[in-house]
Specification:
This protein is mainly α. Among the domains are: 49 residues, no CATH class; 136 residues, no CATH class; 177 residues, no CATH class; 94 residues. 71% of the residues lie in helices and 0% in strands. The protein is built from 32 helices and 2 strands. It has a two-stranded antiparallel sheet. Helix 5 runs antiparallel to helix 6, helix 9 runs antiparallel to helix 10 and helix 30 runs antiparallel to helix 31. The radius of gyration is 50 Å and the shape is elongated. The C terminus is likely disordered. InterPro entries: DUF2339_TM (IPR019286), UCP035905_mem (IPR014600).
């Protein structure tokens, strides 16, 4: 109903739009005629116009003057020629509007009109009137009771026979007139037999049936004799209608379909002689329509055998009819194909077959395979006999056969095996298309790969199997990957095609598919190993849960190893075959390694667990082997070089995390999670890697020395001592700052020793690592891009500030452990012990700076020490002085005063300029 309403709405909208277009076109046509008419009038000069006076100089109220503006506006004026003297443009030819497309109602009306008015119109109108007259005569005679019903029916039958006889006699002199009469005669005889059986019960079912068969057979003979498809259609339409007209509701299905078999064999015989497509359509629609209706209303399992046999016969008949039609209908491009018979028989026949076989296990699958075998065998036979002339039919049969093979798989197997078979079938179709230089099988093969992948992903589930590798999940994914690899290999070069427009367009897209198809296959290759790694063993007893083959942590690490090893195998393939895309996965192995580490940390696993350390060694070994191979190959692509450098940098950061995890393993074994040993792990790891980079890679900080270094410094020295080290430097700097401010230095089970505890040692190492790294960068020739800030004095000031904070927090931790001051900011600030220590410490630092400045004659450094000493004085007045009567105040003031005397004696203010014999001023 929705489709019908939509059709009506669309037809109405189409009619309205076309009406508006016709009105607009008609209006435009009238305007053009007016314009052309006005142009013709404006070029005519009246006889009364004086010589030499322009024709357009006539009175304003004359027609010429009135038409002039319109003519001037309607056509361009040449600047060098006055408008009045331009030659008249030839009138434009009238625009021919394309005929409007007829709608459904118009098509039906046109068909009736063509039948009535086409050919011998008078005869056809006469036949219609004759039928009406015979009906009226029969009704009148029946109402008046003038003649017995037998006589009336006999008279009508004789009239039909007379029409048939006259038409047959006149078949050569008046062919159209004769065929019309014969068609009318056949219809009259059919209706007479039907009325005798159904209306008046004068003829038993079997004789009536026989009479109609005789009429049908004679009509077919007449149609063949006179080469009249219209008469044949009328005869067979009546023949197929006979069982329906004469049915009493209790007939045998075997008798019904035996009769239809005879009719279809007759149609097949005619198809052998004639290419009457309309007759084939009548038989096809009637046979399968009645079969479908009977199957829905009357079919029972007891009818299976007979129904199956008749269905096979009907399918074979109409497949043969399609072949015969193609044989009898040659064209310039090969024999024509009746798509309705070709595809309709397959679809309708399989639909009925599926309904019959539904009661059997795998019945639908075997039915699909049977249809596939039929069409593929016929395609093979036709290829042997007439490959060129039957090319379109062969392609259609191959497509139908492959379609049924594809359909059989999900009907018989689950989605995992289905996807595997579809992928293999897609590869086969692509290979056939490649060998035959045809683009459609190749496109079908690629489409099947995508469908197979979707089917596998839709059916993916827990892999429960006792068989390693030989299980549906692993093999299903692998059977998608391997055909994809094969197709990607075939796509490396330019494949032949038929040079049609569609083939050329497909070839453009096909040329870009090799790399995506390979990566598609690589993804499913990796997926196959992932599902195998996550395989579970079925429970030993019924009802028991399945058991994973590997633990969760081992599954994660084996997945990482599988991905890295797959990339390694792909790189080997790339090196052996010079296949560039096969090397791509090897450039991204850092990603699975990093994700594997994150998953390991979330699951509570450690790198040094067994067998984790073995897996990590293998994975890292393969990773660095691939880094080496990718670096040593000739690379002309800047993007590839940058990617390789980024991989080296990221690998350094990953090693930093792995080292930290190893240290956490020691913390875990020593049960030191609540101590400072645990808090410094990540910082110590970053310090250790930064020191290694500064000492190891820092040796290669001069471009002139790079050729003397082996891989990786010879290629990526800057990547190590600058790009990889810079984030570690930031981490060490701010990590040390936070550690100094937050860590209490708890060293249980060992006693706290100032400067020899994990916190103070880590902070000292952090400061040393930063200094070493700065020296390596400052000595680099040239400086790395973006490293201009490293040699500046501001960097030294930042390191000095960090050292000042570190020294101050050493005193805080000492006070916390030895004087029992609580470890929080308020308690520490309120402690006069802390304040006394700060005063003495800052004075000592000021003394050291000022002595150093005096020795090096650095006025700025001396002023910095003096500023710190001034800060001590301010603190004495504002903070320490408030400790009335406290011993700390006494110690503070005495110590600071004595130290200031020492400063004043040993480190007076240096002069602004050094003495001449002192040489140049040295930098700090």
């Amino acid at each position: 109903m929705g489709g019908g309403l939509g059709l009506l709405a669309g037809l109405g909208l189409q009619h309205a739009i076309r009406s508006e277009m016709r009105k607009s076109n008609e209006k435009l046509r009238l305007q053009m005629l007016e314009l052309l008419k006005s142009r013709g009038d404006s070029t005519t000069v009246p006889d009364s116009t004086p010589a030499g006076k322009p024709a357009l100089a006539s009175a304003p109220d004359t027609p010429v003057a009135a038409a002039a503006p319109a003519a001037t506006a309607a056509r361009p004026v040449t600047p060098d020629i006055p408008p009045a003297t331009q030659p008249a443009a030839p009138p434009a030819p009238p625009r021919v509007r394309p005929p409007a497309e007829p709608n459904a109602v118009e098509l039906a009306f046109a068909a009736a009109k063509n039948w009535l008015l086409g050919g011998n119109t008078i005869v056809r109108i006469g036949l219609v009137i004759l039928f009406i007259g015979l009906s009226f005569l029969s009704s009148y005679a029946a109402a008046a009771g003038l003649f017995p019903v037998e006589l009336r029916l006999a008279a009508v039958a004789l009239a039909g026979i007379a029409l048939l006889a006259v038409g047959f006699v006149k078949r050569q002199a008046r062919p159209a007139f004769a065929l019309a009469l014969q068609g009318g005669g056949v219809a009259v005889i059919y209706l007479t037999v039907f009325a005798a059986f159904r209306r008046f019960d004068l003829v038993a079912p079997l004789p009536a049936f026989g009479l109609m068969i005789v009429v049908c057979a004679l009509s077919c003979a007449l149609a063949l004799l006179q080469d009249s498809r219209a008469l044949a259609v009328a005869a067979f339409a009546g023949g197929f209608a006979v069982p329906l007209l004469l049915s009493t509701g209790g007939g045998s299905s075997v008798a019904l379909f035996s009769y239809y078999t005879l009719l279809n064999l007759a149609i097949l015989f005619i198809a052998y002689k004639r290419s009457w497509r309309v007759l084939n359509m009548v038989g096809f629609a009637a046979t399968f329509g009645v079969a479908t209706l009977w199957g829905v209303l009357k079919y029972e399992p007891a009818h299976y055998m007979s129904s199956q046999l008749f269905l096979i016969v009907f399918v074979l008949i109409y497949v043969a009819a399609a072949i015969l039609y193609a044989r009898n209908t040659p064209t310039r491009l090969g024999n024509a194909v009746d798509s309705t018979l070709m595809f309709g028989t397959a679809l309708v026949g399989f639909g009925l077959q599926a309904g019959l076989a539904d009661q059997f296990k795998f019945g639908g699958a075997f039915s699909a395979l049977g249809f596939a075998a039929l069409y593929l065998v016929l395609a093979a036979v036709l290829m042997r006999r007439g490959r060129d002339s039957y090319r379109l039919m062969i392609e259609s049969m191959i497509a139908i056969g492959l379609g049924f093979v594809t359909l059989a798989v999900p009907l018989a197997l689950d989605m995992r095996w289905t996807s595997a078979v579809w992928a293999l079938e897609g590869a086969g179709a692509f290979w056939v298309g490649m060998r035959q230089a045809r683009w459609m099988p190749r496109a079908f093969g690629l489409l099947l790969q995508v469908v197979a992948a979707g089917a596998f992903l839709a059916g993916i589930e827990d892999n429960v199997s006792a068989w390693p590798l030989a299980n549906p999940m692993f093999m299903g994914a692998m059977f998608i990957a391997l055909p994809a690899f094969a197709i990607a290999w075939w796509l490396r070069g330019v494949l032949p095609h038929s040079d049609s427009r569609w083939a050329r367009e497909f070839a453009k897209a096909e040329a870009m598919l090799s790399q995506p198809v390979y990566l598609f296959g690589f993804v499913f290759w990796c997926l196959a190993w992932i599902v195998e790694i996550n395989r579970e063993l079925p429970g030993s007893e019924t009802g028991m849960a399945s058991v994973p083959v590997f633990s969760d942590g081992t599954q994660q690490l084996l997945t990482v190893l599988a991905l890295v090893a797959s990339a390694w195998l792909s790189l080997l393939l790339a090196r052996k075959s010079s296949w560039t895309v096969a090397a791509w996965p090897s450039r991204f192995t850092l990603l699975p390694l990093a994700l594997g580490f994150i998953a390991q940390e979330l699951s509570g696993e450690r790198v040094l667990y067994t067998p984790a350390w073995i897996i990590w060694l293998l994975a890292l070994g393969l990773h660095y082997w691939m880094l080496y191979k990718n670096d040593t190959q000739t690379q002309n692509n800047i993007a590839t070089l940058k990617l390789n450098r980024a991989t080296h940098v990221g690998s350094v950061w990953l090693l930093t995390l792995l080292l930290a995890d190893c240290l956490w393993f020691g913390i875990e074994r020593g049960n030191l999670w609540q101590s400072s040993w645990a808090s410094v792990v990540l910082l110590v790891s970053a310090i250790a890697v930064l020191l290694c980079l500064s000492v190891w890679a820092g040796r290669a900080n001069r471009i002139a020395l790079l050729p003397a270094f082996r891989w990786p410094l010879g290629t990526h020295a800057v990547a190590y001592y600058w790009y990889a080290a810079l984030p570690l430097t930031v981490l060490v700097f701010f990590g040390a700052l936070l550690m100094a401010l937050l860590s209490s230095g708890h060293t249980a089970p060992l006693p706290y020793v100032p400067l020899l505890n994990p916190t103070d040692l880590a902070l000292a190492l952090a400061l040393g690592a930063l200094v070493f790294w700065r020296r390596a960068i400052v000595a680099a020739q040239p400086l790395p891009a973006g490293a201009g800030w490293v040699p500046r004095k501001q960097t030294l000031l930042a390191l000095a500030a960090l050292a000042f904070v570190l020294l101050n927090t050493v005193w805080l931790r000492t006070v916390h452990h030895f004087f029992g001051v609580r470890w929080d900011s308020a308690a520490l600030f309120d402690s006069f012990v802390v304040q006394t220590g700060y005063a003495i410490l800052w004075t000592l630092l000021a003394l050291g700076l000022m002595l150093l400045a005096h020795r090096r004659v650095q006025r700025g450094l001396w002023l910095a020490g003096a500023a710190l000493l001034g800060l001590v004085v301010v603190k004495l007045l504002l903070v320490d002085l408030s400790n009335a009567g406290g011993a700390e105040r006494i110690v503070t003031f005495i110590a600071v005063g004595a130290l200031m005397l020492v400063v004043g004696y040993f480190a007076p203010l240096p002069p602004k300029a050094a003495a001449a014999d002192a040489g140049t001023v040295k930098e700090a």
